[in-house]
């Protein structure tokens, strides 16, 4: 369970949103939508404890985020960023980096379901397209089997077929809480809940 209660986001240029409140149940697939600059990505950072709101409260499993260690928060979550700049040579190194090197068969299964060849794990990151990188990191994060999966614009580099495959994979996840930020209509429609960020 994730709850925002009267949360404010502000930067030097001013308030981005104010008194934002929402509730995400365990196992619910939720998409945060809104125009560029409305704070969608910042909400994902707040959930991880990377960004502390000046006002309001955030709860994870009924516990105030301030009362949970950052390490404990992140051990519950896997995060796929919007801008993928991987400091590794290939997918195998990525698996070692995030701690899924013992789950290669699981990663390969997700890669296959996302429409990639298993050999893609050994291909140089520099030779991959944006969509291939995106699917590799999603498959690797899924293999961690964390309770909460955070996806920032997960469809941004994917074609229609790849989006459909990703939606199917996400729908088949058992008892996982998915929180994504996206403006893709097909992705939004596939979610259990949409939270629209309108700004102030």
How would the blueprint of this fold be written?
Blueprint: E1 2-11, E2 14-24, E3 29-33, H1 40-48, E4 57-60, E5 63-64, H2 70-75, E6 77-80, H3 91-98, H4 104-113, H5 130-143, E7 148-152, H6 160-171, E8 177-181, H7 185-190, E9 193-196
Parallel strand pairs: 3-8, 3-9, 6-7, 7-8
Antiparallel strand pairs: 1-2, 1-4, 4-5
Helix pairs in contact: 3-5, 4-5
Architecture overview:
The structure is a single chain. Strand 7, helix 6 and strand 8 (177-181) form a beta-alpha-beta unit. Helix 3 (91-98) packs parallel to helix 5 (130-143) and helix 4 (104-113) crosses helix 5. It contains 7 helices and 9 strands. It has helices at residues 40-48, 70-75, 91-98, 104-113, 130-143, 160-171, 185-190, and strands spanning 2-11, 14-24, 29-33, 57-60, 63-64, 77-80, 148-152, 177-181, 193-196. It has a 5-stranded parallel β-sheet, sandwiched between helices. The protein has a domain at 85-145. The model has no long low-confidence stretch (mean pLDDT 91). The protein is globular. The two termini are 26 Å apart. With 200 residues, the chain is of the alpha/beta class. Helices cover 32% and strands 25% of the residues. Keywords: ATP-binding, Nucleotide-binding, Transport. Residues 2-200 form the ABC transporter domain. It holds the Pfam family ABC_tran.
